[in-house]
């Protein structure tokens, strides 16, 4: 599977290279000097005209060698970006199918789970033709066992649909937007002054201490009332 992914990446690089094309070589500004030094000294005006002509031709060549970005270049860049996104999508989908086929061939397959708090979670595991719902904490306990073929098939179909939805272009775009927003919020929190953070921490500690003192006084009053 890794070799096929590597081949796909190599093919992507070749196609991008062919799409952008070879870089246009710059025109060399090399011209031979007509006449010798003596002629240039005897006829300075003619020598000046020759040098001016060479500078103008060099400027024209530099302008032609460095053209501005055209609308066609922008269209090609957009098409290249779309092509890369589509190719990446199909490569990820192919890898997902291969990994799914590999997992389905195993006797035990983890369908995921959900945390319950306190280092406890609920896990769904497929063992052979059965679905096991396990409670994981200090030890592992069997909560429920599903051996009905129809229910097992529904679990497998839902798991496969969830994997396919993770590779949808809309879901990928949503993840990118969330990542950008999280990065922006992280940058804002980092830009918060240290003094403000220190004050908030001190106020939180004071509130916790006041709450603890109230609870302690209340417990002492309850003990006195019991006595």
From TrEMBL:
It comes from the Bacteria. InterPro entries: Flagellar_biosynth_FliO. Its main location: membrane. The chain crosses the membrane at residues 74-92. GO terms for cellular component: membrane. It is found in: Cell membrane. The keyword Ligase does not apply. GO terms for biological process: bacterial-type flagellum organization. Keywords: Cell membrane, Cell projection, Cilium, Flagellum, Membrane, Transmembrane, Transmembrane helix. It holds the Pfam family FliO. This is Flagellar protein FliO/FliZ.
């Amino acid at each position: 599977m890794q070799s096929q992914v590597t081949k796909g990446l190599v093919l992507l690089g070749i196609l991008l290279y062919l799409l952008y094309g070879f870089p246009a070589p710059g025109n060399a500004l090399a011209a031979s000097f007509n006449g010798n030094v003596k002629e240039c000294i005897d006829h300075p005006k003619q020598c000046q005209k020759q040098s001016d002509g060479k500078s103008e031709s060099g400027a024209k060549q530099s302008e032609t060698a460095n053209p501005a970005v055209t609308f066609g270049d922008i269209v090609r860049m957009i098409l290249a970006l779309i092509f890369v996104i589509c190719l990446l999508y199909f490569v990820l989908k192919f890898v997902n199918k291969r990994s799914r086929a590999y997992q389905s061939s195993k006797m035990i397959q983890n369908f995921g789970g959900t945390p319950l708090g306190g280092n406890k979670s609920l896990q769904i595991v497929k063992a052979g033709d059965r679905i096991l719902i396990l409670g994981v904490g200090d030890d592992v306990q069997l909560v429920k066992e599903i051996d009905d073929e129809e229910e097992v098939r529904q679990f497998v179909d839902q798991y496969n649909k969830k994997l396919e939805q993770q590779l949808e272009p809309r879901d990928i775009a949503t993840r990118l937007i969330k990542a950008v927003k999280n990065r922006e919020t992280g940058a804002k929190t980092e830009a918060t002054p240290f003094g403000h953070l220190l004050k908030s921490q001190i106020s939180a500690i004071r509130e916790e201490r006041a709450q603890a003192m109230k609870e302690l006084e209340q417990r002492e009053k309850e003990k006195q009332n019991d006595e």
